[in-house]
Description:
By secondary structure, the chain is α/β, with parallel strands linked by helices. It is 41% helix and 17% strand.
Amino acid sequence: MYQINLMSAQLFSHSQILMAGVDEVGRGCLFGPVVAAAVVFNFTTIAQLQDIGVKDSKQLSVKRRESLVTEIKNRAISYQISYASSQEIDRLNILNASLLAMKRSITKLSVTPELCLIDGNQKIPDLTIAQETIIGGDRTSPIIAAASILAKVWRDQLIVRLAAKYPHYDLENNKGYGTKKHRMGLQQYGPCFHHRRSFKLG
């Protein structure tokens, strides 16, 4: 059962309040960027997300995630997807790169939400918009779950495209995570441009 986490009861008394759900995917991967999505809804639209089957992207099949992307975008007031590259991850560390990707997605929105609900326990540094962190937010907040779906589908499609260029790592199946085949490819061919050199690749 979803819960809508309220930072302030007064803040949400107006039905047209604009809230952004923000989530990232790919933190644990060895390959590729960490990708974040921010998606904005008004308060009255949020209940519709659960009705159409929005939930944590990890609990959905590939086909269902892809079908929900269009439905989420059609209901959203604004959405953006951004990322931090493997090189930025190596330079900043994965936590700071994830926060950077989330901040980029928020600042590129065509509207400014009154509140951002951020998955996790780390606030985004220097964000001028009110924000609330929610541990396990992709499981408990429908707008964070919507962001997780957009980010997951976008990143997976990117990795599949890159798999054609880098066929040695079984990327189409592992999406950049450190599976046995991926690590075998690393042992045989070494890392490529998109691998995170600061991660344990061996």
